[in-house]
Each structure stands twice: as structure tokens, then as C-alpha cells.
Design a protein that fits this description.
Elements: E1 2-3, E2 6-8, E3 11-13, E4 20-24, E5 31-36, H1 40-57, H2 62-78, H3 80-91, H4 95-112, H5 115-118, E6 122-128, E7 131-135, E8 142-146, H6 160-165, E9 169-173, H7 180-189, E10 199-201, H8 206-214, E11 218-224, H9 227-239, E12 243-247, E13 252-256, H10 262-274, E14 284-290, H11 294-306, H12 325-340, E15 344-347, E16 366-369, E17 386-392, H13 395-403, E18 412-414
Parallel strand pairs: 1-5, 8-9, 8-11, 9-10, 11-12, 13-14, 13-18, 14-17, 16-17
Antiparallel strand pairs: 2-3, 4-5, 6-7, 15-16
């Protein structure tokens, strides 16, 4: 059994953790590795190494720093299939979705290679009488990222390449549910011959998160996850004097007007609701039709029933499992709640049995119609393959409902 290590100061090291957790394939329940639960000492070792590495790294010119990123880009491209397969095995998403995720990650590396121009400052003459003003941008120091399970490859690359290109050093804490992807990335980063301490990885759970939020040498934290944890990260990080960007949950509504193109709209909506088994920050969730809805409802129902669910590496599979057995139980209970609230199940994905993967965390596409818009299901981020289908008479009422929702992330209109 593979036991995962941390990557600190340019070396693979064992964690000081007192416990290890299983890394489970959500489609088969196969235990693929053991990941350390983490320890405060792990964070301190990484932060100390990153702080020491920062002294050298910040003095290297931007033009030289980005040469490492050009090399990383090539390594990611050369290994994209293996990296994509790893994402599928540990997160459950399809191979096509995983590969698309890596394309986005690589695009961020490419963009960060433009830092020598992007980070330039500004100069303003005569900002006041006899006064000129100039602004320069300097690296902050040690930065860290707390990454979610749903995009184990892409989301760390929203931050990592920009941080190091600007002269900062970096610590990544992958989700303990999907630690294998970033482990493979660190194996590639190890081949870059970066100065020691520039990029570090620490595995673990809450103890590592708290360690990152509290450690005095860490200057900035980036987080993506649920709203409850985002609020915790933001509050604790800010209380410890850090710059924090903490991105939380969403309930992404879609309005469909009577004149929308039915085929195009149905395909986009179904792809959005069920892509990555609904485990996307921008997954559409509440679909609101305005006026006559018979044709669009029938089209969405038909496409949802045709969406093949299964193991993400199998041919023709369009949707994989949800991440854990606990997630499956939670999502099924929310479906039950929607029914109890008066919703009508048009497509029922509960009790899904996938041949060869009977123990997997599978829920097939589900549609619940006429869920009360003031009910629990309509106000909960499900993070699963469940569509709430509502019918409202006017666009004004639809927009008023959306604006009254407690979540805000993405809203779309088809017309």
C-alpha cells in the first residue's frame, strides 16, 4: 500500500501525523493509498523552508523565474494522460472531464509566464502640485493554497504559477480525499530543479488547515470550498493578519424563456447540471422556466435519462460517482427532502447499480419538479447530480426569486 509523503524543502519527507486515512476510488471503493492526517510540525517545517527559500527566490529576476514555468508546462503536457487518469481514479470524474481540467491548469501556467509584463507598476506625473507618484509590485512572501476535492489539478494552478512567478514561495495542501494528483504534480515539479523551499506540499485535514492559518510566516491564503469553511478560513486567516481569498458555495440558477433554442439550451443545461456529477462550483442547480414549458421540460428529461453513468475510464460514460459514500447518503436524503416538500420526481437517480461497480458512490441524473422555492432543497447547495425544475409565470418573478437567494455565484438566461 502506497503511503503518501509530504514534499518540503525540495525533498520527500514522512509526515509527523499520528493517523493515516484511506484514499478511496469512489467508483470501486478500492483503497489506493494512505494519506497522512497531518500535524502542526509538518506545517512548521514547510513554512520554515518556504521562508528560507523566499530570501533567494525573490531576488531571482522574473525573466528567470518563468523559465521554470515553461519547463513545467512541457512536463504537464507530456504527462497529461497519466495525470488525467489519476484524477478519474481518485475523484470519479470522467477521463474527458479530467483532461479538460488539465488543459485549464496548463493555460494558467502559460498565462503566468507573462508575469514580467503583468506585474509592472505604474507612474503618474503631477498627481498633485510638484508631486509624482509611482507604484511597484513586490513579492509578499510565503503563500498557501487549501484546495478542494472537485478539481484537484486545476484549482491549485489558479494560484501556484502566479505566486512563484511573482517571487513568492508556496505551500499546497491538497484535499485529503484526492491527494494523489498533486503528489504526481510534485514529482514533476521535483524535476524542475527549483531552489529548495520554493514549492512545498503538506497533506492532512483540519490540523494542517489551522496550522497554515495560524503560522506567522505565511502571509497569504487562497481557499476554494464550501461557504461554511470559507467563512472559517477567512475569519481565522484575517485574525492572524493574512491576506485571504476564500471562495464558497453557490446555488446557480438558470432562467429559460419561451423563445430559447430548445435543443441547444437542453444540452447546455444538462451538461452543466450533471458534469462532474454536479460537483462543480458553477454547476447549474435550479432551472426556472418562464411561461410555456412543455417542450423544454420534455427535452431536458429525455437528455437526462440518456446520460450514461459509470466508471470514468469506461467508454461512452458521461458521468461518474460522487466523491464519498457520505456524499451519496447526503444527496439521497436531500432528494427525499424534496419529495417530502411536495416535489415530483421526473427522473430518479437513487438506488443506481452500475454493473461491475455495485459498491460505487453512484447517483444517476435526477430531476425534481415543482420543489417549493422557499423550501430546504431549493435553498441548499446539493453538490450532486440533482436538478430542481421550477416553473414561474414571468421573468420579473424569476429574477426576483434569484435576487432573494442567499447564494450568489453564477446565473444564466436562455432566450
Amino acid at each position: 500500500m502506497l503511503t503518501l509523503q509530504n514534499y518540503i524543502n525540495g525533498k520527500w519527507v514522512d509526515s509527523k501525523a499520528g493517523e493515516y486515512w484511506d484514499v478511496v476510488n469512489p467508483a470501486s471503493q478500492e483503497v489506493m493509498a494512505k494519506v497522512p492526517g497531518g500535524a502542526a510540525a509538518d506545517v512548521d517545517a514547510a513554512a520554515t523552508a518556504a521562508a528560507a527559500g523566499f530570501k533567494e527566490w525573490k531576488r531571482i529576476t522574473p525573466g528567470k523565474r518563468i523559465q521554470y514555468l515553461f519547463h513545467l508546462k512541457r512536463l504537464l503536457e507530456e504527462n497529461i494522460n497519466e495525470l488525467s487518469k489519476t484524477i478519474t481514479l481518485e475523484s470519479g470524474k470522467t477521463f474527458a472531464e479530467a483532461k479538460a481540467e488539465w488543459i485549464r491548469a496548463i493555460e494558467n501556467v502559460e498565462n503566468a509566464c507573462g508575469i514580467p509584463a503583468l506585474m509592472q507598476g505604474d507612474f503618474s506625473e503631477d498627481i498633485a502640485t510638484g508631486i509624482d507618484e509611482y507604484m511597484i509590485r513586490q513579492p509578499l512572501g510565503v503563500c498557501a493554497c487549501i484546495s478542494p476535492f472537485n478539481f484537484p489539478g486545476m484549482i491549485p494552478f489558479w494560484f501556484l504559477p502566479y505566486a512563484i512567478a511573482c517571487g513568492n514561495t508556496f505551500i499546497i495542501k491538497p484535499s485529503e480525499k484526492v491527494p494523489l494528483t498533486m503528489t504526481k504534480v510534485m514529482e514533476l515539479i521535483d524535476r524542475l530543479d527549483l531552489p529548495a523551499g520554493v514549492v512545498n506540499m503538506v497533506h492532512g485535514g483540519k490540523v494542517v488547515v489551522d496550522g497554515l492559518l495560524e503560522h506567522p510566516v505565511i502571509k497569504a491564503i487562497s481557499f476554494v470550498g464550501s461557504s461554511a469553511i470559507a467563512r472559517y478560513v477567512y475569519g481565522k486567516g484575517a485574525a492572524n493578519g493574512k491576506r485571504v481569498q476564500a471562495q464558497g458555495g453557490a446555488k446557480n440558477p438558470v432562467i429559460i424563456l419561451p423563445d430559447a433554442d430548445i435543443d441547444m439550451t437542453s444540452q447546455i443545461v444538462v451538461d452543466s447540471v450533471y458534469g462532474c456529477a454536479g460537483q462543480r462550483c458553477l454547476a447549474a442547480s435550479t432551472i426556472i422556466t418562464v411561461g410555456d414549458h412543455k417542450d423544454i421540460t420534455e427535452s431536458i428529461v429525455e437528455l437526462s435519462r440518456k446520460r450514461t453513468t459509470g466508471f470514468g475510464l469506461d467508454e461512452n460514460v458521461l458521468m461518474g460517482p460522487v466523491i464519498t459514500a457520505a456524499s451519496k447518503t447526503r444527496i439521497n436524503s436531500l432528494i427525499d427532502k424534496g419529495v417530502a416538500e411536495g416535489g415530483k420526481v421526473l427522473v430518479d437517480g437513487r438506488n443506481a447499480k452500475i454493473p461491475g461497480y455495485e459498491q460505487g458512490n453512484f447517483i444517476q441524473p435526477t430531476i425534481i419538479e415543482n420543489v417549493p422555492l422557499n423550501g430546504e432543497l431549493a435553498g441548499t447547495e446539493i453538490f450532486g447530480p440533482v436538478m430542481s425544475l421550477a416553473h414561474i409565470n414571468t421573468i420579473e418573478d424569476a429574477i426576483a426569486y434569484i435576487n432573494g437567494n442567499k447564494y450568489g455565484n453564477m446565473a444564466c438566461i436562455f432566450t
